[in-house]
Amino acid sequence: MSTTPQGSTSNQDEITLGTTTTTTTTTSTVSQQEHTAINDGSDSRRHEAFDLPISKKFKSSTTLIKNGSDPTSMSSNCNTANLVEAMEHTNGETNCNGKSENNNSQHTTTSQQMAGVFQHQTSTSSMKTPEIDEGLYSRQLYVMGREAMHQLASAHVLISGMRGLGVEIAKNIILGGAKSVIVHDCGNVEYADLSSQYYFTENNIGQNRAEVSNKHLSDLNNYVNVTFSSATVDDAFLLKHKVNVYVLTDADLEEQLKVGKHCHEHKIKFVNANTKGLFGQIFCDFGLDFEVIDTNGENPLTQIVTEISQDEAGVVFMSTDTRHGFEDGSYVTFHGVKGMTEVNEREFKISVPSPYTFTIGDTRNYGVYEGGGTVTEVKKPERVNFKPFSESLKDPELLVCDFAKMSMPANLHLAFQAFARFKQQYNSSPKPWDDSDADKFVEIVEKLNTENREQPLTDELNKHWIKLFAKTCTGDLCPMQAVIGGIAAQEAMKAVTGKFMPIRQFFYFDAIECLPENVFLPSNEVTTESPTVVNLPMKPSRYLSQEIIFGQDFQEKLGKSKYFVVGSGAIGCEMLKNFAMMGIGCSEEGYVYVTDMDSIEKSNLNRQFLFRSWDIGKMKSTVAAEAVKAMNSRMNIRAYVDGVLPETEHIFNDQYFEDLDGLVNALDNVKARQYIDRRCVYYQKPLVDSGTLGTKASVQVVVPFLTESYSSTNDPPDPSVPMCTLRNFPNLIEHTIEWARDNFAGLFTIPAQQAEEFMRGAKEFAERTSKNHSEYDKTEIVENVKRMLGSGRPNSLSDCICWARHLFEQQFHNTIAQLLFNFPRDHVTSKGERFWSGNKRCPHVLNFDVNNPLHLDFVVAASNLLAHIYQIPQTRDRKLIAEQVATIHIPEFKPKAGITIHENDEQMRADNDRQKNITAMRKNGQSANDIEIEQLLDRLPSPEKIVNIKIQPHEFEKDDDTNFHMDYITATANLRAENYEIQTADRSKIKRIAGNIIPAIATTTAMVTGLVCLEVYKFIQGHKKIESYRNGFVNLALPFFGFSEPVPPKRQKYLDKEFSLWDRFEVKGDMSLEAFIEYFKHTHKLVPNMVSAGMSVIYSPHFMRQASKAQDMKRKISELFETVTKSKIPPHVRSLTLDMLCDDLEGNDVEDVPYIKYTFR
């Protein structure tokens, strides 16, 4: 049986399942042509649909709003399913007009596409595992894992409803890499869609939503088979398209019930997502006995074993430096244990009696532990049962996300049901900001709270929240869609991969604090009449649905706002998209600025959705600005390609920051965040900082005078690895990877850079080397230059191969042999303890074997890296290299006596201190080492002999698989791991650690930027209460959502006045030092006794020259500053930051006072 879907102006469907035809009220029809299309892989540009003339088909909605008609009826979905248990299978599908829909169009791919993400088999019967393009998906692979990515690459996802929420979910899933995605909608684009559907413009009014969306979505990932349809979704449709995840958005409750029932009965994973104004809802049903293969998303714990007892308990001891982190009842496996080898590669269920030990059970029949080994957590799958939608609706499991509003989920559970009941009773949605309708809505909620229940669903029914829901539920916000869409897309990915714990089963989210503070009242106080603070829209605009919530006056504020987006990577792209939909900077007075120093790379395309393959190599900020300008042509946006640094303060100067209304960070490092934070504190501008790490995300709100700043608290530093551990005693693969990364720089980057510097000027090079480096470093630097430019430099690839073979011998044989000569395997310390025990693994030498692929990998990579430096043609011919390597003679290594090898960092520091003392003693004379440096410089080629030598250092680039960088680091790290019997790692893991890659996924990014933009609404509202704002921490893997009030700034006091980091003394106008001192005496009752700017002291009576003191007191502060710093103040600088030590008028020391902003221009 099929249904006749609604038209674009009605959603009143009457559906009967199972036997008879279904009647549907419809007032308009869509195009008579076929409405299923396949992405043809053409290189169509992203903005083609934006060039159409403005549609004149829209009729004013003013009358509808005045008459109380449903404003959301303009954006209604078609009915998406007539789901029946028994269905005749037909060769065609019925579209929205009852026409036969023919799916004979074939998906075509170009050769360029075949190099893309997933190589799909054209045969539907093929079960071959799809290949993954690691260049594109590297960051997501670190989040999902290879197995989950393969599962995702086999998924067929149907997303019904292509308004703002549906397109957000579709975008995230397509970027994620599902095998196929069908975007479905029978309705046409209307003005109410435009506030959040970023692929729609006024030009698309009257066109099918799914078709318009498909034009843009299909460009996101050419190897995800993206199709659109406006056909009836029935059992035949689902079977034909092999749908295993059904995402339903913004549907009527009746439809949700029918789709939920069918999906549960037919084992189709079901995700139901809805938004109503400032409120969002997600429901998940993944059926019975659903397997979650990773419940928390964390990497398995690994610890170093130091001892295993041979007794009934089997106590395992680990390093006492840190807690081991294992939980009671978890499972572990051992690797590399010596002596007690029976435990290796076996799983044990453990008991945890202390934070530093655990037990594995009886080990009396095992061998005696002799040393070594690591223990790693084994993650076990968990099985979860889901109830169908109808059952969960009556007896919900609710996830709490804001502990300041514990009862909000239950209130919203009733409100979303009441919305359907209200439409059923009154034949329309509640009118925006209508008190009468809000009262009726509350009555329905009160009835639902007790209807068919022995106990009320909640004893904390909040009528004020319910009224706010009723008054804003017909609105639509892009940031809300970003939040709910990001979470819902991640749930859909969980459904097909089993990766991470799903939502069980309802999740509700609200952002009522975005309303004016006198409206949302952040308490449970019930007001009889909430003031109507919004002036409702009287004519259609692209912000219609946003104006329903906030009013036209607030929309004007958004348009006039000036915001700075710092960074246009993944977070920056999403932020700009949200800003364009919100209308920020979209009036004549407003502006959005964006800056980013980076260019677009292939790995960016997986998350940074404003970029396409043809943008690779272009600057991120300029491409992002172009893309959002196409989304909203009214947006005034300017792109910079400069970093926001002290060096660019002539660009981002006083005038620039003072004109801003706020900033949002989209940065990926702490140092840059701290600098932006300091600028915001100085200019007293609001800032929202956000960041992601895989499925984790955080948001911090910085509000002048209300909250602490970003830099007020610091994360604990990452534990550093002792240098001696890296150099001589590694025990984890992370240690060998870090050593390999340093080794790469020490061989292929730093020496070549030093040689380049020498070639630019030998005398200057010698002077800098002698002045700035220790005796030991001087010799090393000069030796590097000699090696790079001397007669021993390679002249051919054969020379490079020979050098690489000797390098292998030096690093993996000779150095280890020398270490074992100094500390033999049976070496005992002065305390009578075995030297090679605990964290020290006893190594063994590697004997080169040309038939060992890893050994040859090293020689191939090292020889080619050296060849590149000297611009010698490279080769990947492994056979050629292997044949030459076999002919190279390697002399026998003989250990040397007297070689010092530091056993620990204390010894190393003591040695370094001795070197510093030697340097200090020789500072005033020419040392023997200085003479040696001169002799070495004399032996280097003269400038005329090296003039034709061209050197090109390697700058480490992890994402280029053709440059041999990761080849070398992978081989080196694993060879050193073999030296120390450490478990080796694959290239992907080594790349992540060596490249310091931050795992990332589009869903988390979309979600966190939605949270940021909700806070921006509050900035523009002008909220004055700290409880109106929300810091957030989210982990989609658990899932966990935590929101809290920001922390207020620390208060200090001088005299009888309190101040915080936001306060300062404001001094305007350039004045003499004498007048400056008198100003502070009379105005602030403080007597300055020292004034400084940075490291320069401008005034200190005890250190001023008496001869010029009287003259200096008459000089301007700015003049004194230039004299002391010996530099002119740049023209763009209008103020100086001064610090002051002072006394009170009685001469008592005043410890802490604010800094001084001295504005002299």
Automatic annotation (TrEMBL):
Q: Residue ranges under compositional bias (Low complexity)? A: 19-29
Kindly state which reaction or reactions the protein catalyses: ATP + ubiquitin + [E1 ubiquitin-activating enzyme]-L-cysteine = AMP + diphosphate + S-ubiquitinyl-[E1 ubiquitin-activating enzyme]-L-cysteine
In its UniProt record, which GO terms are filed under biological process?
DNA damage response; ubiquitin-dependent protein catabolic process
Q: What is its EC number?
A: 6.2.1.45
Q: Where is the Ubiquitin-activating enzyme E1 C-terminal domain?
A: 1029-1156
Listed Pfam families: E1_4HB, E1_FCCH, E1_UFD, ThiF, UBA_E1_SCCH
Q: What's the protein called, per UniProt?
A: E1 ubiquitin-activating enzyme
The scientific name of the source species is: Rotaria socialis
